[in-house]
Amino acid sequence: MRKKELLVKYILGILSTKERQLLDLWMKESPNNALYLEKLKKRNYSERYQEYKRSHRNFSVRQSGWKHVLVQAACWTIPVLVAFSLYLGLRSDKEIQIEPGTSKAILYLDPTTKIELGNSKEFEWIRLNRLDMVAEKQGILDYHQTSSRQDIHQNNLLETPRGGEYRVILEDGTRIHLNSQSTLSYPVCFEADNRTVELTGEAYFEVAKDPKRPFMVKVNGVTVRQYGTKFSINARSPQNTMIVLEEGSIGMISPDEDVRMLNAGDVAVWDRVHSTISITAPESFEAYVAWHRSRFVFDDQSLGEIMENLSLWYDMNVQFEDEALSKIHFTGSVGRYENVNILLNAIEATSSVKFHIDEHQITVMNKY
């Protein structure tokens, strides 16, 4: 067993008798080893572990069933706190840190006029048609009860880069959380008979109720229609668009006007190539909407999928030294605003994978 795992298990109080003997031998090798262990104990890791334990957040790995994946995966589940401990005390202080994304976006008032938005704590107004119409503060763009009093026939476009997110409140009160590398096109003022927006990328919608005006999202050739509910749309793939309905019901309208209805808890996938809509009702859809609630939740996801999601949020590039490593599956949860090293360390501690970070390039390699 590696020294890292021995130290972490000692801190968490889960050493076996054999492991304790190995740790004692290591401590006898040098007086500095005992001093180092005492230093770790003083950081009060046990209290952090209890906090994570109460939240029941675990991180585990399983070996893929693919024949060509020759990876020896660890057989035990380690709480995410293991990664937290490694991150704080067991990794080099000189290790490159890749920070999480922040609230930032570009607002296009028209094709030639753009405004860079950030996470300023100061309240600011954005002028439309020579009037102060849009309020912007702390990562939220607010059109509600400002532009609704004006008859402005104009579309705006909100664009988030890699490593960015932004929230917007439309003039009807609908709230939209735009994930990284996504765009949302919407009118400053909705029409009298409908509320239509267009999306690329990923977003979470909390639609204001209006029984007289359907809210419609046009995305990848399909239209989502409803009158007031909560749902998320992931349209990152050019072929498959995923819609997850959290409350109420919505209708999905294909280009040939075929309408499929979704109920709360349903997950629908629009296959643009084959023009088909498939609907399932999983036991839990937390993994699909966790990003909106400031977490990453992976439910038996491949490392390739995990790293693709992380690359967008942490604005980093990922390369697999061995493509077989991308097929290993993980289950776990970690905060979305944590340093990426926390998650990477959790994966390293529970598998035969290791990561090399060079500025914003992460290389995934075999550990052994």
Question: Can you characterise this structure?
Answer:
By secondary structure, this protein is α+β, with helices and mostly antiparallel strands. It has three domains: about 1-35, no CATH class; about 45-100 and about 295-365, Phage tail protein beta-alpha-beta fold (3-Layer(bab) Sandwich), CATH 3.55.50; about 100-285, Sandwich (Jelly Rolls). It has eight helices and 26 strands. It has a 19-stranded mixed beta sheet that branches. The chain has a four-stranded antiparallel beta sheet with strand order 2-1-24-22. It has a three-stranded mixed beta sheet with strand order 23-26-25, with helices on one face. The radius of gyration is 24 Å and the shape is elongated. This is DUF4974 domain-containing protein. InterPro entries: FecR, FecR_C, Ferrdict_sens_TM. It comes from Bacteroides vicugnae. Pfam families: FecR, FecR_C.
Helix content range: 10-25%
Number of helices: 8
Second-tier CATH architecture of the largest domain: Sandwich
Report the portion of residues in β strands: 35-45%
From the alpha carbons, calculate the radius of gyration and give it in angstroms: 24 Å
Supply the CATH class of the largest domain.
Mainly Beta
Poorly predicted ranges:
44-58, 63-94
Q: How many structural domains are formed by the residues?
A: 3
Domain FecR protein: 158-250
Protein name: DUF4974 domain-containing protein
Domain Protein FecR C-terminal: 295-364
Pfam family, one: FecR
